[in-house]
Amino acid sequence: MFSNTYIKTTDFPKNRDVQLFAWPVYSWEVYLSANKGRELNLFEKTILELIRVTGNRELSPTQIAEWLSLEKEMVLYILTATMQPNGWLDKNFKITEEGRKILDSETEHEMTTALVFQCALTGEWLPRIAYESSEIKPENDSRKLTFKLDRATDRKVKAYRATKQIHEVNKPGADQLNDLLGKDKEARWIANNISNERYHAPIKAEKMLLSNKEVKQSYLLLWADTSSGFKFEFIDPFALSSKAPWLNEIFDQARSVNDKLEQFSSSKFNVQEELSYQETIDLMKETARVEVLTKYPNAGQFGGLVEPLFELINGKEKLNREHSADYSLNRSLINGCGSILEIVCKTVLIANPFKRLSILPGNNLNNFDKKRELALLLKDVGKFSHSQIDSILKVQPGKIYQTARGNNSSLRSLLAAIFISMKDYPHHPLQFMTEDSLLFKQVYELSHDRDEASHGNSTRFTNEQALNYINVVDKFLENILVD
Questions:
Q1: What is the pLDDT of residue 256?
Q2: Residue 111 pairs with which residues in a beta bridge?
Q3: Calpha distance 139→116 (Å, rounded)
Q4: At the N or C end, where does the chain have fewer CB atoms within 10 A?
Q5: Which residues have a Cβ under 8 Å from the Cβ of 446 and sit 6 or more positions away?
Q6: pLDDT of residue 26
Q7: Is 222 helix (H, G, I), strand (E, B) or coil?
Q8: What b/e readout covers 50-65, taking b as 16+ CB neighbours within 10 angstroms?
Q9: HEC string of 39-100?
């Protein structure tokens, strides 16, 4: 047998329509070097230096603002919202020992141990780092694995163990480790910056080194959502998002080299035994296309919209049938609602691009000033109330600039870029959002709950909440998918 070690990197999902896989991997221990604490930005460093050189002399926020030609409100915010909470200043705005240390860069390095994985079926590296993991024992380690998930309810689940055609192990080199670190940091940055809350500790490691420990053969426990009824959608085993398309790609490669995995995949969904797994997916995609276009005839105008709409239609039917709440399904549906609006907004922004990047605040400004300038731009559009402008700007200013350029984007950054650009488009296709204050409010409520549904793991969304957001999407699409 390949291994008798089973690794879990996240809590098991509670939804019912899932398939557990025991996936053969080669696991390597690595060390990551990171700085404790955080670096000072330019304003924090300047203010701390000023306070230190004045010694025992008392400086008020007004005096500091005058000395540095800054606004008093901004100085007061830096003093009370970052410097005092971090322990760099005391209650009288005097520099502390911690403040002196961070000015002198007396931060220590710390080493973190983690795991990286190579798929033993395909040889592909998983583009994530496991900072936390635990081993779990199955109730039996025979051909059919059974895991006990919940001691309180005695809930058990069977797992499919993928074996055969094990790929040769490859020791990762420095370039490979740096590539994995870069991909993992990017994924965590997106997870952290897609909303105002942090769901995962930011990783500041600058380098990753392989430990001297030998490679270990293990089974990584992976979950796939089967609620679509015709395919596996792998759930992110590192909990950085709801789904892991990169894992679906590895799964598809593995099926091509593992006949038993292909047979199992086909038998799980295939109502026509002569069809392969891929043929079943293709057949159901065509069925989905017909069903979606029957309800939303113009949905084909937006690339990638058909499949999530099909899942939403099926999900709504399930919710109307079920009396008890399937919290994982509800999270998935709310995340799907946000994805649909994101797809539409991306297409709209491409068709109606941001014409004047120069009007957006530059990187030389701090976030306080950037938001003030963005608020003026939105006010100049003449379509938004003060509370709506506050809602629009609940996104990092830098994300708005990147989105306007066509780079990294989230739903709220897309909406912000679109709303600012409306000055140049008197008949913008999202004009209806500015005319329906209730829909505007509901879309932004969805955007925040979608963050929690996608990246959080504790909120229990009710059937009513999921149905409400499906109805919000319906209302949004009624306005955008017009002839």
A1: 87
A2: 33
A3: 26
A4: C
A5: 334, 337, 338, 341, 469, 472, 473
A6: 95
A7: strand
A8: ebeeeeeeeeebeebb
A9: CCCHHHHHHHHHHHHCCCCCCCHHHHHHHHCCCHHHHHHHHHHHHCCCCCECCCCCECHHHH
Which residues, in sequence order, are CB contacts of 130 under 8 Å at separation 6+? 7, 9, 114, 115, 116, 117, 238
Residue 372 contacts residue 378 (beta carbons within 8 Å): no
SS3 state at 444:
helix
479 and 432 in contact (C-beta within 8 Å)?
yes
What are the per-10-residue average pLDDT scores of the chain (483 residues)?
88 76 94 64 83 78 83 83 80 84 62 88 93 86 77 75 83 90 83 54 71 92 83 86 89 89 81 71 77 80 83 84 76 89 93 92 84 94 94 89 84 95 93 95 93 72 91 92 70
Burial class (CB in 10 A: 0-12, 13-18, 19+), 297: exposed
Secondary structure class of 282 (helix, strand, coil): helix
Number of C-beta neighbours around residue 285 at 10 A = 15
Alpha helices in 422-462, H assignment, sequence order = 431-435, 437-455
Q: Calculate the alpha carbon distances from 237 to 104, 121, 223, 248, 460 in Å.
A: 40, 18, 7, 12, 19
Report angle CA 259, 264, 270 to the nearest 5 degrees: 115
Question: Rounded to 10 degrees, what is the CA torsion of 284, 290, 292, 298?
Answer: 140
Residues contacting residue 283 through CB under 8 Å, at least 6 positions apart:
230, 275
Q: What per-residue confidence (pLDDT) applies to 196? A: 46
Centre a 10 Å sphere on the Cβ of residue 70 and count the other Cβ atoms it contains.
Answer: 19
- Residues 6+ away with beta carbon under 8 Å from 162: 21, 22, 23, 24, 121, 254, 258, 261
DSSP helix/strand/coil, 25: strand
- Residue corresponding to tokens 């796939």: 224
